[in-house]
Amino acid sequence: MLDSIRNKVLSGQRLTKEDAIALFQSDDIFDIGRLASHVAEKKNGKNAYFIVNRHINPTNICVNRCKFCAFSRSKGEEGAYELTVEEIIKKLRKGQRSRVKGHGFSEVHIVGGLHPDWPFEYYLNMLLTIKKEFPFIAIKAFTAVEIDYMSKLSGLGLEETLVELKKSGLDLMPGGGAEIFAEGIRNKLCPEKISGDRWLKVMEIAHRVGIKTNATMLYGHLESIGDRIDHLLKLRNLQDRTGGFQAFIPLAYHPKNTEIGGFYSSGIDDLKTIAVSRLVLDNFDHIKAYWIMLGEKVSQVALLFGADDIDGTIIEEKITHSAGAMTEEGMTREELIHLIKKAGKIPVQRDAFYNAIWTE
Predict the structure, then answer these.
(1) CA-based torsion, 191, 193, 199, 205: positive or negative
(2) What is the domain-level CATH number for residue 314?
C-alpha cells in the first residue's frame, strides 16, 4: 500500500481516505516522514518559518465549560480574570519596548473565553484601539466559536459580524475551536460548543469576506484514526472551495486539570500526524509544528516530517499551560532561529501573511 501511496505523492496525485488510513496504520514512520518532507520542500523549499508575535487572552471567563479545557472559569470562580482594553494595550507596549529595534511584534494573537457580560462593542473597541496604537501589527483574533458568539451578541448575521470586525481592524483569524468534527466525540468533549459544521460555515464566510484563517485539529483524546481523517478531508474540501486557509496546525491534547484526563500524545503520534496532515492536505501551503504543545525538540524534528512553520515567540501562553504544557510560555527570536538551523532548515522570519521579513 505504501508503494502505491508513494507513487501517488511523487506524481502529484491526491490521496484518498483509504490512503490516509493506511498511512496512520503504518509503522514505517521514516518513509512517511520522507514523503511528507518531499511535499513540504516542493511547496516551500528548505524554508522554515517563524514569527515574532505575542499572545493575549483577554479573559478566561466562559459560558462554555468544555471538558478538555483547563483554561476556562465561571464568573466569580477562583482564578477567573478579565482584561480591560487599556490593560491589553499596556501588555503590548511592554512587549514592544522589550524587543530589539526591527524585531518588534508583527502579529498579536487574541483568543479567550465567551464572556457572559461583554457586549459586541467591547471587541470592536479592542480592535480599533490596538490598530490606532500599533498600526503595523496584524491582529489575528477570535476563533470561529467566538465569532458565532459575537453574532448572537450583536444581533447580526455571521457575515455582517465579520464585516464589522474587519472594518475595526481584524486582519485574520486563528484556527481554534475546530477540535474534532466527529459529532459523537465532539459532544463528549465540548457539548456546548458550536458543531463542526457550524465551525466550517464560519470559516467559509470569513474567507468569502476576505479574512484569511488558519485551521486546527485537536488529537490524542477520545477520537479514532477515522475521526482524524474525516476532519482532514472536511478541511481539504473547504479549502478547495475557498482557498482561505493559510496553515493547518495539529494540536496535541494535554490532559492535566481537565475533566477527560488521559495521557499526553507520544512523539511518534505527533510526528505521524504532522506527516499525514502534510500528505493529505495538498491544498494547504503550510503545516505548523506548534512548539507550545509539541515541545521544542519534537517541533524541531517535525520540520523533517512535513512541517514548515514552528510558530513564533508567543510570550505568555496560558491556554495550553493550564492543561499541563511542559514548555516555556515563550521563546526568543534567537532561540527559534537556533532550533530551525539545527534542523538543517533555512530560518525565515515572516509576517502574519507569510511574507518574508528576514532570512539568512
Answers:
(1) positive
(2) 3.20.20.70
- Give the integer Cα–Cα distance in Å for 299 and 46: 16
Is 266 domain-assigned? yes
**What gap in Å lies between CA 216 and CA 180, rounded to an integer?**
9
Residue 94 lies in a domain: yes
What local confidence, expressed as pLDDT, does residue 60 receive? 92
Q: Structure pTM?
A: 0.94
Long-range contacts of residues 69-78, Cβ cutoff 8 Å, at least 24 apart: 69/190, 69/258, 69/319, 69/322, 69/323, 70/254, 70/256, 70/257, 70/258, 70/322, 70/323, 70/324, 71/113, 71/318, 71/319, 71/322, 71/323, 72/113, 73/113, 75/116, 75/117
- Domain containing residue 223: 2-7+25-359
Contact 234, 200 (CB under 8 A): yes
Per-residue model confidence as pLDDT tens digits over 76-113: 899 899 999 999 999 998 766 444 444 678 999 999 99
125 in a structural domain:
yes
With beta carbons less than 8 A apart as the criterion, state whether 289 and 301 touch. Answer: no
For residue 14, tell me if it sits in a domain.
no
The CA distance from 130 to 110, in Å, is 11
Residue for cell digits 514512520? 29
Number of domains composing the chain: 1
Beta carbons within 10 angstroms of residue 124's beta carbon: 18
Q: What is the spatial distance between Cα 122 and Cα 58, in angstroms, rounded to a whole number?
A: 11
